[in-house]
Target: Elongation factor 4
Amino acid sequence: MDHIRNFCIIAHIDHGKSTLADRLLEYTQTIKITEGQMLDDMDLERERGITIKSHAIQMEYVSNKEKYILNLIDTPGHVDFSYEVSRSIAACEGALLIVDATQGVQAQTISNLYMAIDHNLEIIPVINKIDMPNAMPEEVEDEIVDLIGCDPEDIIRASGKTGEGVPEILEAIVKRIPAPKGDINAPLQALIFDSIFNSFRGIITLCKVENGVIKKGDKVKFVQTGMEYTADEVGVLKMDMVPSKQLSTGEVGYIISGIKNATEVKVGDTVTHIENPCKNAIEGFQEVKPMVFAGVYPIDPNDYENLRASLEKLQLNDASLTFQPESSQALGFGFRCGFLGLLHMEIIQERLDREFNMDVITTVPNVSYMVYDKQGNVKEVHNPSGLPDQTMIDHIEEPYIKASIITSSEYIGPIMTLCLDKRGELVSQNYVSGNRLELIFMIPLGEIVIDFYDKLKSISKGYASFDYHIDSFRPSKLAKLDILLNGEPVDALSTLTHESNAVVFGRRMCEKLKDLIPRQQFDIAIQAAIGAKIVARETVKQVRKDVTAKCYGGDISRKRKLLEKQKKGKKRMKQIGNVQVPQKAFLAVLKLD
Ligand code: GTP
Model:
C-alpha cells in the first residue's frame, strides 16, 4: 500500500488534460508510441475533444530505485458529468490541477478544485502549454497562488506537447501525494467510480478498495441497489484488463460479475461482501437524476422499435440516459428521454444518428418541474404537455442553478444583461486576478437550456467560461404557451415560460415558425395561445408549386427523379393535420433572437 499513488487530473476543458495524461503514460512506458490520444477511445469524443466517460489506468514508475504503482483516474471535463468527477476525485488521494498558460484559471478549474479540496486531496498545480508563444506563466502562477495559497515553487511548469515537466510531475506524485490509507483486515468496502460496457463481458465495474480485500469468486453485494453478485474476475486496468487473484486495500481495479444492465451499477455505490459486510456505505452517494428532457421521435413510424433498441444499446454505456415511451398527437409514438444536461443531449442525438443511423425528430428540451396541486400533492412533470389543467395547479417549482462565470471586466456589462434577461440574480462577484472576475448567479435551469451558451460565447467573444451546479427547486410563475397550426394545437411545440415574457415569447415563436414552415398549397395560420387566449398570429401564404410542370410531360425518368428528390426533401417533415412541418420548426424556440 505504501507504494501506491492514486491521482486524478482536473482542469478546465481544453487545458490539456488528455494530452498530458498521454505523456505520463509514454514516459512510464505504459503505452509505447502515441497515435493520437490514447484515453479517448470513442470517435465522437476525439472529435469534440471531450473525455465523456472516465477511465482508469495503471502505470509503473521507479523513483529512487523503489517501484511505485500509479493509478490515474481520468475525470470527465464537462459540467453535465460533474457527479462522475466528484466520485473519481473521491477515489484519489491527490490531484494534478492543470491550468493552461495562455488562458489562466477558468470556471471549471475552480469548481473542480473545490471538489478536490472537499475530499482533502493533495493538489499538485501544473501550468501547462508553456511552449506556446502566448503563454503567460508568471500571471497564471500569481492566479494559482491566489487561488490555493500555495508556494510558487510548488507549481510545476509543463508542456503536453514537448513533454517538458513530465519527470517533475511524476516525482511530485510520488513525493507529495500520500499513499492510500485503509484497513486491510476490515470488512470489504470498495467505491464504484465508473462502469464500462464490453460486448463480451457485460458491464464492468471500476472501483477503488477503501478497506479489506476482494478476491476472485467472492460473493459481493452492491449496498445502494441491494443486488448480489459473484466476482467472476477481478483485476487491474493497464492498456488492457489484467486479471489478478485479488484487489487489496488502496488498489484500483475492475470487477466482472455478469451484470447485463448498466443501471444496476451506480457510480458512488459501495461494494461489500455478503458475509461479513461493512457497517456503513461510503458517504456521499447520490442518485444522478436527469434534469433536461426532450421527446425523441422516429421520422418513419416503422422505426419505433429500432429506436427503442438503439436507446437500450446507448444506455448500456451510459446509465445516466433515461427514456420512457411517450406519444404526441403531432409526432406519433416516440420516447421522452432524460439527460444530465445539454451537452449530454447533443451527444446522444449525434450517436443515434451516426452509430445507429436513426432519423429522429427531437423536440425542444425542457427541465423537470414540480407541480403542486390545490390538495398539496406534488407531481414531477417532464413535459409541458403533461401539465395538469391550470385550474388544478396551486403552484409550480422549477430547478435553479448556481452558475459561475469567469470573464474579464470589459464583458461584465453584456454578461450581466444576458443573465438578468434570463431571470438570473447576481449573488456575488470575486476577483480572480488583474481584470478578471468570477460572477456567481442563481438562474433557472430552464433558461440555460435555451440558447444560453451560444449567447454567452458570442457576447464575450469566447472569453467567458461557465460552470454550474443544480442548486434547488424554487416557485415560479410559469405559463404554458401553446402553438396552433390551422387551429390545431401542436403538443410538441408547447413550452413553459415565465408569465412576464409569455406574450413576447409567443409573438417571436410565431414569427420564427413563419420563416421555418415552407409555403404549401393553402394558407397556414400560426397562432400562439395561453390557455384559451390567442396572443399572437402569423400566416404562411399559399403557393402552388409543381416541380414536374417544367418537364412538359416529356421524359418520364426525369419526372420520376424529380419526384424522388421531392420525397427526400419531405423525409425530415412531419405531417401535422394537413400541414408539413420540418424538423427545424420543432427547435424554433432555440433559435429566437
Ligand atoms: P478534455 O479532455 O476535453 O477536457 O480536454 P483536455 O483538457 O484533455 O485537453 P486536450 O488534451 O484535448 O488538449 C486540448 C488542446 O490543446 C489540443 O488541441 C492539444 O493538442 C492542445 N495541447 C494540449 N497540451 C498542449 C501543450 O502543452 N502545448 C500545446 N501547444 N498544445 C497543447
Summary: Residues 2-174 form a domain with the Rossmann fold fold (CATH 3.40.50.300). Residues 49-54 have pLDDT under 50 and may be disordered. The first helix runs from residue 17 to 27.
